[in-house]
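Page 42, continued from yesterday. The earlier attempt failed because a stray header line got pasted into the input along with the sequence. Redoing it now with the clean sequence only.
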Amino acid sequence: MFASRLLPTPFLALLLGALTVAGFAPFELHALPLISLIVLFRFWGEAADARRAAGLGFAWGLGFFLAGVSWVYVSLHDVGGMAAPLALIATVLFCAYLALFPAFAGGLFRWLRPRREGPWSAVPLVAACWLLAELMRGHLLTGFPWLAIGYSQTPPSPLSGFAPLIGSYGVGFVLALIAGAFAFAPAGWRGKAAALVFATLIVTAGALLGRIAWSEPVGEPLRVSLLQGNVPQGIKWDPKRLSLSLDTYLRLAEAHPAPLIVLPETALPLFLDQVPADVLARLAGQREALLGIAVRDGRGGYVNAGVALPLQDASPRLYAKRHLVPFGEFIPPGFDWFFALVRIPMSDFTPGSQDQRPIALAGQRVAVNICYEDLFGEELLAALPEASLLINLSNTAWFGRSLAQAQHLQAARLRALETGRPMLRATNTGMTAAIAADGRIIDVLPAFTAGALQVEVRGHQGLTPYARWANVPLWLLALALPCSVAARLWRRCRITPCRPG
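This time it went through. Structure tokens are written below.
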């Protein structure tokens, strides 16, 4: 048997999960996540019961997240100042929480899998269980969709062609379908050939879909300067070093003029009303600018905002971040003690309104998103079809020199594909980049360098199918398949007492 030859122990599942991270940026070995899921699904199919399958899913997930989001330790210890043992414990606990989702998928699949039906019936069921677990991970407790398996299939992977139709979660579902076909194909050459034909058809469909232009350019080309100050997080909020941020971004803005200048999230460690008027004037000059900065909301709180310059006489044109980071930008109830252990400046932001419209900038309608908001693809759709351009402002200095820089850029490429809009990213330490509407990287600055990326882009108009439907069809699919199987098992058990799986 396949499982007995490979010794599917929890340790092997853990190692398999860790290796899967190489399928994502910066390595982008696109086939590796597929191979990993094939092996994992075989483990689940041969598990003695649902508890065993859940345990193997947990081990896989623990290896996957410990390897893939180890930068959480960097954020807590290296940047946040938490004691090393506590930061290590917190990181492991966080990864263990994330591992519960593949554990849930494995346990649910093994519990529901009808033993009396053919092997092909397991294929849509395992893919649906996987999809449901990923959707839940992206929404529960404000959500953490980082490293959803679909993110591994950026161009040139042919599966990226499905992103404008069904989004990143849908791409993950398609990947799971292919893996399920290989994992549960009947023994013998006919079964393997059928799985290969099925996979070839899906990959070919993805490649053909990737040739479709779901949106079209509109307006004149726009020249943009994306600024990357590379100001170390450890000194950024030191009042004695304020001049470093001011001088760095003024120098970059004046040395790299363009009709639109974009500065990253909290580029200036001040509230907007504290910035000297001459600094704002020099940043804007004879052009327009988008500045990441904290803004008082007039009710005693403050928002994490992208502000359009020059300022207007009335209220400023701004976007206030809506999806805040727990423990980084707001304090979850009962966790005040956490902030006694770390040094996180401005950690109690107020979320922005959910119905904010795009900002008019340099002849474009710009949908601004801040930091890891671009991990939540469905939330960016509210700006469409009005928005012609997406701009992300991030301060990725919190991640240190880790995989997070490249992983974050890869997620932004999926957002461009899903919306059919170019995505511009201005970051403090990297990766500042321009992404075309088809998910290709136009250009990118080296991380951990100070500089300006000057690019020319055109806004786009039109709606992709995903922009119309968002994740609603995926939720229906993820719930309908397991529920239909459970209902069938229930009807069967009423006639003949049995236990699922």
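Notes: The chain has two domains: 2-212+471-495, 224-325+356-467.
Reminder to self: strip header lines before submitting.
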